[in-house]
Amino acid sequence: MTFDLVRFITYPWIVLGAIWVVTAMTAKRSRRIEPSASRILHFIFMTIAFGLLFRGDMRIGALGIRVVPNSFAVAWTGFALTLLGAIFAIWARLMLGANWSGVVSVKENHVLVRRGPYQIVRHPIYAGGLLAMLGTALVYGRAACFVAVLLAFIGWWFKARKEEQFMIQEFGEQYRLYREQVKRLIPFVL
Questions:
Q1: Is 155 left (phi over 0), alpha (psi -120 to 50) or beta?
Q2: Considering the domain boundaries, does residue 113 fall inside one?
Q3: In percent, how much of the chain has pLDDT > 70?
Q4: Taking residues 148-156, what's their average pLDDT?
Q5: Does 130 map to a domain?
Q6: Distance between CA atoms of 102 and 127, rounded to whole angstroms?
Q7: Alpha carbon 50 to chain centroid, angstroms
Q8: Can you give the residue range of the structural domain that contains 60?
């Protein structure tokens, strides 16, 4: 059964990617965007992270070592986490609507969204992505996959910080209050 999960683990990611492509066409025009240097750095982090997660040929040497048991329970737990993470990220993306952007930006007529998953964490797309990556790492079980989760966490953490700077400049005290009420990535923790 683990073999089937290794094959099927990509399906939630494919659905997530398809929704991103389709909904990206409805995004509002950006009024302000982050500098290209930070966009490039984030792109490099995420490219390496997703490469380590999905490309078996990058799992060489110590990165190829299995670090979790190859068991039915671990694989199914990983699949469930991947599915939950993808669903959470999709929910967040749909709630964000036309305010979404692939880069840190402020949109024309930008609205501060605080409903749905944004009541749970301030950056639910990243939180869902991290949960999905952790689940996928459990299914594959290799050290490279857990390094990928760490790299994605670092990449999304810095991107979230940059987004928050933009949101404070745009929404001021309203966003500061939101930051005090809702954690960044992990509910009740971080």
A1: alpha
A2: yes
A3: 98
A4: 96
A5: yes
A6: 15
A7: 11
A8: 2-16+30-181
* Contacts of 13 by beta carbon, 8 Å cutoff, 6+ apart: 82, 86, 132, 136
For the chain, how many residues are written?
Answer: 190
CA distances from 144 to 75, 79, 114, 127, 160 (A): 16, 18, 35, 20, 24
Q: Does a structural domain hold residue 68?
A: yes
Domain contains 21: no
Task: Out of 25-34, 146-155, 167-176, pick the least confident.
Answer: 25-34
The domain tally of the chain equals 1
d(CA 74, CA 139): 7
- Cβ burial of 9 (10 Å; 0-12, 13-18, 19+) is buried
- pLDDT digits 0-9 by tens, 80-136: 999 999 999 999 999 988 888 888 888 788 888 999 999 999 999 999 999 999 999
DSSP tag of 117: G
CATH code, domain with 34: 1.20.120.1630
Backbone φ and ψ for 23, nearest 5 degrees, come out as: -75, -20
User: Which are the contacts of 47, defined by CB distance < 8 A and separation ≥ 6?
Assistant: none
Any residues with CB less than 8 A from the CB of 112 and at least 6 apart, and which? 167, 170, 171, 174, 175, 178
Mean pLDDT over the full length of the chain: 90
Residue 2 has pLDDT above 60, yes or no: no
